């Protein structure tokens, strides 16, 4: 078995860009996997949304306040369309 080692010299901005691209690809992969596992027309509670995105309830509230998340009130309950959330995360 041969081992190949390639040494590349990068400046700070090139390394930063490579890291950003790698993270974006990883996030996209997770979002696509989640979209397959869940029905797109489901609604989530605040707690379910926080668990799905691995964020705190206070972050959910901040995202509602800043307009990132758009809750829907159904039967007196505050719910979030999973399809809308997944579209927002993909942007």
Tags for this model:
Multidrug-efflux Transporter Regulator, Chain: A, Domain 2, 4 helices, mainly alpha, 57% helix, 91 residues, 3-stranded antiparallel beta sheet
Fold and architecture overview:
The model has no long low-confidence stretch (mean pLDDT 84). Helices cover 57% and strands 11% of the residues. The protein has a 3-stranded antiparallel β-sheet with strand order 1-3-2. It is elongated. It has a single domain (12-90), classed as Multidrug-efflux Transporter Regulator, Chain: A, Domain 2 (Orthogonal Bundle). The protein starts with 11 loop residues before the first helix and ends with a helix. Strand 2 and strand 3 (77-81) form a beta hairpin. With 91 residues, it is mainly α.
Q: How much strand?
A: 5-15%
So what's the oligomer here?
Answer: single chain
**Alpha-carbon distance between the two ends:** 42 Å
Would you state the CATH class? Mainly Alpha
How many individual β-strands? 3
How does the helix and strand content classify structurally? mainly alpha
Q: In this structure, how is the largest beta sheet organized? A: 3 strands, antiparallel
């Amino acid at each position: 078995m041969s081992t190949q080692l390639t040494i590349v010299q990068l400046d700070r901005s090139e390394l930063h860009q490579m890291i950003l691209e790698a993270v974006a690809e990883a996030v996209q992969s997770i979002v696509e996997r989640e979209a397959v596992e869940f029905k797109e027309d489901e609604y989530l509670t605040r707690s379910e949304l926080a668990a799905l995105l691995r964020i705190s309830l206070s972050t959910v509230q901040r995202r509602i306040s800043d307009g990132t998340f758009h809750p829907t009130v159904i039967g007196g309950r505050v719910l979030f369309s999973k399809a809308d959330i997944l579209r927002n995360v993909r942007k």
